[in-house]
Fold:
Amino acid sequence: MEIKKINVINKELNSVIEIPGSKSYTNRALIIASLANGKSILKNPLYSDDTKYMIESLEKLGVKFEKNDKDLVVYGTGGKFNTVDNMELFCGIAGTTSRFLTGLSVLFKNNVIINGEGKILERPIGELVDGLKQIGVKIEYLGKEGSLPLKVNGKNVNGNEISISGKISSQYFTALMMVAPLLKNGLKIRVLDEQISKSYIDITCDIMKTFGVNVINNNYKEYIIEKSEYKATSYTIEGDWSSASYFMCIGALHNGIIEIKNLNKNSVQGDRGFAYLIEKIGAEVKYGDNSVIVKGNGKIKPIITNMESMPDTAMSLAVLLSFAEGESKIMGLSTLKNKETDRLLALYNELKKLSIDSEIGDDYIIVKGGKHRIIGNIETYDDHRIAMSFAVVGTVIDGVDIVNPAVVGKSFPEFWDYLYNL
Structure:
């Protein structure tokens, strides 16, 4: 069992780091560039476990890739994929990869197996499957009902309207939206109830527009995509605001300054709002041309906030608020139960190992800040965000040990190097 011992930062911060490209943007851009005709250039892509599985699967489907310095060249097929009967596309534990590839099933003319391992075989995909069946995709569960592995075949697709719930995952909608322009009649997608994680829908619409396809977004109740073609282009992947959140927290907890580069302050990423929360808890935040500068004083104020638009950074904030003098509440977290693990339960369990009391419900966590006392190693549950969030504590409190630190490879493979260099 591998364990990472986190070193306390005993000096005043005066650091500059450059955040890698966004996983959310990279995986979307990989799909869309593959659906375009011809050569696209992706600048600043993220190379992580999730994007590796996406690239490997798209290569199996006949898409060609070339690495060129920091760029990735994608030779799109216009949606004409080479599928051999019962070909398997393997997604590891990558949720976005599995769901986006399932969306591509409308273009598969043979049976294709979409498979993975670990927790991905328990994560829900039933709502997306039901939506695809509405337009004629033939899908069979090969294991547990409602989860991977799947056998999919799109040779009889003929519909152009889908209605599914928006309460479970915005990734279902993204998967459908990205492939919609290649359907012979386009696609209308109706949200049956409330659309969660709207910021991720915005990311999808933003990238699709850059590649030449417009999405009509009727107030997140309905999305209309007409039949059209993606245009191959050169596209720069934004830096990842969720990856930046860990270093914003470190900046707030220590005296001094940390500048985090490669961040678009006008981004549609919901996690961009994390900088506002860092201000709210008492740190000073300034914006550069392409960076955020955090000046901390080590004093954390308790807050009450809703993070429905940025759930991926909720764990960062919860851990940070364990240092506050008082009780904090984070709401809007219904999606955390269906991530790599039940993140609310994981937060509760691991905060307890720091002697921090908390309370969790279906969509919230209450964190009661206090004095930390380490009473066990931090388990990561195969979840990259648990490892990185609790590493923040170790920069202040001696004795924080992270079990299975390699899980950060899912979204931020160089995280431990970045942390060490501080």
User: Anything to note?
Assistant: The CA atoms of residues 19 and 92 lie 24 Å apart. The first strand starts at residue 3 and ends at 5. The chain has a mean pLDDT of 96. The first helix runs from residue 23 to 35.
